[in-house]
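Data availability (excerpt). The following record was deposited with the supplementary files.
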Amino acid sequence: MKKHIVCYGDSNTHGYCAANDGRFDENERWPRLLEQKLGEDYLVLEEGLSGRTTCFNDPIHEGLSGLDYIYPCLMSHEPVDLLIIMLGTNDTKERFGASAACIALGLKRLIAKAIATTDCWRDKKPGILVIAPKNIEKEYEATAVGATMGRGCAEKSEGLAEEYRKIAELMGCHYFDANTVVKENNKIDYMHLTKEGHEALATALAGLVRLQFPAC
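Predicted structure:
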């Protein structure tokens, strides 16, 4: 059986394309590109949902708490070799009132629940890679999404990388900062990846996965 990798994230994992308010295709989204780069020994499973948070229930849209869905998600894809989590962008919304440190605590809850889903893991060995998402750029405030995101999102997102690094270390997870390879977001909403960003992220993750989770 192939190694199963579950990519658990929000619109940047789903592949939202701001240019057409649609979705990047199967040759452009980072999970699909990751599978192409890893080769036939890996099965990469897309579990991206626009608006998903680490653990917060959104008062406007239902079903967006990552904590609520992680158990059925993992169990439906068992046996899981690696869970890649890239969440936190939506947690910065003003209506949640959460600092970067509090968002990281939400991530910690999510990781703990994933680890505790013991029956999903191949050989009962959890494998989790935490990705700090690309920072929201300050210019988002002047775009159409600025009014619903609220104030302070860019500043909070800048603090996620260090807070996530500490949580990953505490919880025994692998860690990667998307800001090290994705240099800028699109120039429409300043918070979603470009086609080039998806490619850069997939390339970097392929190297990490091969090193930490070799096929043989």
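Summary of structural features: The longest strand covers residues 3-9.
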